[in-house]
Amino acid sequence: MKETGNLSINSENFLPIIKKWLYTDKDIFIRELVSNACDAVTKLKKLMLMGEADHIPAEEAFQVRVLLNKDEKTLQIVDNGIGMTDEEIKKYINQIAFSGAADFLAKYEEKAEGDNEIIGHFGLGFYSAFMVANKVEIDTLSYQQGAAAAKWSCADGIDYEMSDGSRTERGTTITLYLSEDGEEFLDETKLYAALHKYCAFMPVPIFVDILSKEDEAEETPAEKDNTIHISEEEAASLTKEEILAKAQEKTEKTEEEKEEPKPLNDPSPLWLKQPRDCTEEEYKEFYHKVFFDLNDPLFWIHLNMDYPFRLKGILYFPKLVEQMDVVEGQIKLYSNQVYIADNIREVVPEFLLLLKGVLDCPDMPLNVSRSALQNDGYVEKMNSYITKKVADKLNQLFKSDRSAYEGFWDDIGMFFKYGCMREESLYDKIKDALLLKTTDGVYETIAEYLEKNKEKHENKIFFVTDEAQQAQYIRMFKEQGLEAAILTSPVDKPFVSFLEYKNPGVKVQRIDADITDTLQEKKDGEESEAKKQADEYANTKMETLFREALSKEDLKVKAEHLKTASVSAMILLSEDSRRMMEMME
Ligand code: ADP
Ligand code: MG
Question: What ranges does the record give for the region Disordered, renumbered to this chain (predicted)?
């Protein structure tokens, strides 16, 4: 059988489009080809479940192999999945953008139970191979009984050639003859990097083989040491049976040491398990492994939703790294266990970007290159679901163990304040669990703070932004039995205004602004005439002094008496003026 033809696409400009526009990162071909191989296995497993492939043993070891041959400059992706007949090659490969995955799903929709775990659906992924190869071959044998192996070969993605295939076992071998553009993948570190990036959690075990003459020459395979060493005296004291037993033991040990090779990937990632089946250790281990963070996370949220859309994942709240100004999280996005990208702002609710986690959203409407979204209705729904989960978790921690919760607060407070400002609905859900750490060394909710201090100052929250700089004021406050919230992180500045906005009637002000009302003695009875005069004198004097010093004609200065032992005089700047200045900055 030999047949040639022209790919049924009307444009010869097709490959340049793929190369330049569709896929920005070259290494994406790994994702596409390995995910196709996984799909091939998933499809076959589905058929087996439906009783449509009974000739295949149930315990079949499905796998994907990636073979790099440095001398031949080829890279092969080999699977033992569903395979293709030559008719199927014509349909799924020659007709570009006719997605076989969509076709398969449509065909088995009613019959297939459960979810659609098939990765492909754009029908273009295969052609990403031409980003790194000048020639691509498919050698494939369909699972169908009596099927003939078929081969497809295409140089530069323009003309194809089909002939009889050489595979004798079911499955597909894709061979890439790496072009100059793809030569970098002859370096196995590059290859491994791409595999770890995109395939770490793909659903079928993946194994890698690197072939190179050079390596073979270097590697003089050390003779397996199967001899047993027994001294003459020892030998004399042992019976023949005992010596045989020793030898036997040795062989068994060597065999045990030859462990089963481990796949590169973890085909059943933790996020897909039911939360009730996961242990604390597993969550921590997964965190350390995926985020290269040796610290334990503080706590985590396991998202597990099937309806009305599927969303699985784990969000971790990391410990803040001391002295780090920028908090940088990492949210890894997956679709059906295939890595898409990190921190996609269009998809992941912005406040989550401070956390670390994995999100697997198979229903996400991605575009062909899978790096961007096609519409955002989905994002909104996902957003509100995640927000609710985060709020629930926080409230539950707050209620179930207040002291542990307070222990977390310094680490998570900044995240939640930021989250509330970004997502007002989050504030509404968690406002009763937001804490203020005060100069008394305690943690209070806003309601608790207001209640505790209402005798001294009603509906006012005082705060400190710099404990060293404002030490004087803190001391003065303490002398009078007052306390202030410590709000020193960068999010606190806008958060103060946000708190006022969300709590109408409550004034939030810095410890060195507008505090005279609070500090002064309640005016009981007449003020002495002398004091009044002194005040007026001070006022005019001070105003003139400051106006001159700052050359500001219209400066307003107000002098007042203080009721405090530790300070004889202090300069205060009103809360509103300061905030205005901060805003200008
Ligand atoms: P998609 O995966 O979105 O369907 P692709 O361009 O990646 O599109 O692949 C096109 C089609 O080619 C697949 O849907 C599938 O039918 C077929 N195909 C590709 N690779 C394999 C493979 N390894 N085994 C069996 N069929 C394959
Ligand atoms: Mg595909």
Answer: 247-272
Q: What is the DSSP letter of 366?
A: B
Distance 334 CA to ligand 2 centre (A): 15
Q: Where are the alpha helices (DSSP H) in 401-431?
A: 402-422, 424-430
Alpha carbon distance 511, 490 (integer Å): 17
Residue of the nearest CA to atom 14 in ligand 1? 100
Q: Cα angle at 160 between 157 and 165, to 5 degrees?
A: 125
How much distance in Å is there from the Cα of 383 to the middle of ligand 1?
32
pLDDT tens digits, 114-145: 566 777 766 678 988 998 999 999 999 999 99
What token pair was written down for 281?
């250790």
Residue closest via CA to ligand 1's atom 20 equals 36
Global pTM value: 0.80
- Count the Cβ atoms, other than its own, within 10 Å of residue 510: 23
Residue 4 scores a pLDDT above 80: no
How does DSSP assign 448-482, residue by residue?
HHHHHTTTTSTTEEEEES-TTTTHHHHHHHHHTT-
Q: How far is the CA of 210 from the centre of ligand 1 (A)?
A: 25
Nearest-atom index, ligand 1, CA of 43: 25
Q: What is the ipTM of this complex?
A: 0.99
Which tokens is 428 given?
A: 């509404």
The candidate with the shortest Cα–Cα distance to 29, out of 194, 231, 221, is 194
